[in-house]
Design brief:
Blueprint: H1 15-21, H2 27-36, H3 41-65, H4 68-95, H5 105-111
Helix pairs in contact: 1-3, 1-4, 2-3, 3-4, 3-5
């Protein structure tokens, strides 16, 4: 378990709450927290990871929609359920105060904050 981040941020929220909220609406809230939170590296990491992960998922979704029937089946059977599980996991880990890094994207996020 990571260090619990309960200090306040420039948003007035506890860091763990702000980090979890950065995943709430995918890359949209990720971008919002990147713009609003200037100081807290923990929140900025999760906001950047949210932005990268969920923008990537949207891109995959769009690419799969090009394939008429197969693409839609893959989106419904794989992308949506996996995205939902990932979304819940990332929100939970952030709320627990853990700087949980996904493979590839986690390091990219850490390098960009």
């Amino acid at each position: 378990m990571g260090v619990f981040h309960s200090e306040k941020t420039s948003t007035g929220l506890d860091a763990n709450v702000a980090a979890a909220l950065s995943y709430l609406v995918g890359f949209v809230t990720g971008i919002i927290f990147l713009l609003v939170e200037k100081e807290n590296k923990f929140v900025r990491f999760h906001a950047m990871q949210s932005t990268l992960v969920f923008a990537g998922i949207v891109a995959i979704d769009i690419l799969l929609q090009i394939l008429p029937i197969l693409g839609a089946l893959v989106v419904v059977a794989v992308v949506i359920p996996c995205s939902a599980i990932l979304w819940l996991l990332l929100m939970y880990k952030a709320y627990q105060g853990e700087e949980f890094k996904l493979p590839l994207v986690g390091q990219m996020a850490a390098d960009r904050i």
